[in-house]
Amino acid sequence: MKEAPEEEYDPRSLYERLQEQKDLKQSELEESRRLKNLIKGLDDDEVAFLELVDQTKIEMETRLWEEEKKEIQEFRRAVSTLTDEEEEAKIQHLRRTLNLPTSGSSKKSQQTLLAGALKRKASRARNQRQN
């Protein structure tokens, strides 16, 4: 079993020891108050200036946000226009390769229909029936 160590002998009186503890606590209290006193509040002019800075910052952010929004809308319009143009170019290219008329008419002329028709060769069976 362990025994508690004996306290060192202090030849001072109880009053002196208590006074030392009291002085130590008092100095700690004064130190904490001194740090609190170093921090001072803002006066009205400083508060007004900080509010002005905040308001200006908010206005700038709003302006930037609106500009970004406009740029995004313009980009989307440009992309949609570009894709429409690309689609039209592909359709025109297909019409040229298939020899289709480039006009937008839905009716095909008889000449166009006949140009795309294939002529079949007569088969032997058909030739034999005819003979």
TrEMBL record:
Keywords, comma-separated and alphabetical: Coiled coil, Nucleus
First-listed, main subcellular location of the protein, grouped into a coarse class: nucleus
Recorded coiled-coil stretches: 65-92
Signal peptide region: none
Pfam families: FAM192A_Fyv6_N (PF10187)
Source taxon at top rank: Eukaryota
InterPro entries (alphabetical): FAM192A (IPR039845), FAM192A/Fyv6_N (IPR019331)
Keyword Coiled coil among UniProt keywords: yes
Annotated FAM192A/Fyv6 N-terminal domain residues: 3-76
Skewed-composition ranges (Polar residues): 99-113
GO cellular component, one term: nucleus
Residue ranges, annotated region (Disordered): 1-27, 94-131
Keyword match Nucleus: yes
Subcellular location: Nucleus
Bias type Basic residues, positions: 118-131
Protein name: FAM192A/Fyv6 N-terminal domain-containing protein
